[in-house]
Specification:
Blueprint lengths: L1 E4 L1 H17 L2 H20 L5 E2 L6 E6 L4 E7 L3 E9 L5 H7 L3
Parallel strand pairs: 1-5
Antiparallel strand pairs: 2-3, 3-4, 4-5
Length: about 100
């Protein structure tokens, strides 16, 4: 199955990494990168099912980066689209808008 990273996800990940470079250590950033690789592999292997959003059951999420970051994605027929990376301390009211952007 093909995994695609949306433009919104790319931008949100860049913003998170910029923030983390100030607040976290290089080791913690490496953990985040490792978690993203592990997520990719579990999606390819199809071994884990993640929780869905209540109002958008086609959008699922998982916690990564020491449970500080939510990775939102959508499973389509032939591909998985990573929609957004969300730092859990950000304003949750902005989340709905960003998820519906794609």
């Amino acid at each position: 199955m093909k995994i695609i990273i949306s433009e919104t996800a790319r931008i949100s990940l860049d913003e998170i990494i910029d923030f983390l470079q100030v607040k976290w250590t290089a080791k913690e950033i490496a953990v985040l990168q490792t978690d993203i690789r592990k997520f990719r592999q579990t999606m390819i292997d199809g071994i884990i099912k993640h929780q869905s959003l209540e109002k958008s059951p086609n959008i699922k999420f998982t916690l990564i980066g020491k449970k500080q970051i939510k990775l939102f994605y959508e499973i389509k027929t032939e591909e998985i689209v990573i929609k957004l990376f969300w730092h859990c301390k950000k304003d949750p009211l902005k989340l709905k808008h960003l998820l519906n952007k794609e």
